[in-house]
Amino acid sequence: MKEWRNYDRAPSPGYELTGCFGAAFVKPWPPNPGALRMSDRATHTAPATPEASIVAALGPRAIVLVGMMGAGKSSIGRRLAQRLGITFVDADTEIEIAAGMSIADIFAIRGEPEFRTGEARVIARLLDSGAQVLATGGGAFMNPDTRAAIKAKGVSIWLKAEFDVLMKRIKRRHDRPLLKTDDPAAKLQELIDLRYPTYALADVTVQSREIPHDKIVDEIVDALAVHVGLTGWQRTAAVSGDCAP
């Protein structure tokens, strides 16, 4: 069994994750200027997109998705990372790699307090990795030290979802340790009541709802454009917080 110290370091260079799990690397925008003919380089400049401008404005800071289980942080996060041309990282996947066991097993064998300690250490390490879209677990943002680290090294986005939306989504999965109770609906409402005031501290809030995820990505891009101070760019955005128009 791996030791908890693995939470503080990345996997060895020989460990590669691709596809839906782990870090999905996508080709950045704009295309390589070297692909242009020499005669074109003096006159041809790739058009600046909102996505490219957002990435440039954020520099090494991470885009950190927070919110309840079932809010769509991983699925929306992958699409957002692809749109922006940066890496997607799922904190829960990184925790499982570091611990050498599933999150459900960590809860069962080591308990939630020890899981939260490891979770905070993994997120602190990941935030040092530069530009990325980082999806965090539902309880991660409740840690004051984690919130401070995200504030210092990233921009936080709360994917806010109503109870009915969350309940519909989490019924499809059976790997939620905190909902393994006699009354999952009551437990979910308890977590909503506890966590939503803290989630509201995020830099940006975008409503997660039953629409295509690419539409949610559009709204996140709009919200980020406002947050980083881009002018003359607004599509439509169901957002709130200090980036709201």
Summary of the model, kept short:
Helices cover 42% and strands 11% of the residues.
Can you give keywords for this protein?
245 residues, alpha/beta, Rossmann fold, 9 helices, 42% helix, globular
Question: How would you sum up this structure, described in words?
Answer:
With 245 residues, this protein is an alpha/beta fold. It has a single domain, classed as Rossmann fold (3-Layer(aba) Sandwich), CATH 3.40.50. The protein has 9 helices and 6 strands. A 6-stranded mixed β-sheet has the order 2-3-1-4-5-6. Helix 3 packs across helix 5. The longest helix is centred in the C-terminal third of the chain and has 16 residues. The radius of gyration is 19 Å and the shape is globular. 33% of the residues are buried. The C terminus is likely disordered.
Write the SSE topology.
Elements: H1 50-58, E1 62-66, H2 73-84, E2 87-90, H3 91-99, H4 103-110, H5 112-126, E3 132-135, H6 144-153, E4 154-160, H7 163-170, H8 184-199, E5 204-207, H9 213-227, E6 239-241
Parallel strand pairs: 1-3, 1-4, 2-3, 4-5
Antiparallel strand pairs: 5-6
Helix pairs in contact: 1-9, 2-9, 3-5, 4-5
| CATH hierarchy, class | Alpha Beta
Shape: globular
Spatial ordering of strands, largest sheet: 2-3-1-4-5-6
Tell me the helix content. 40-55%
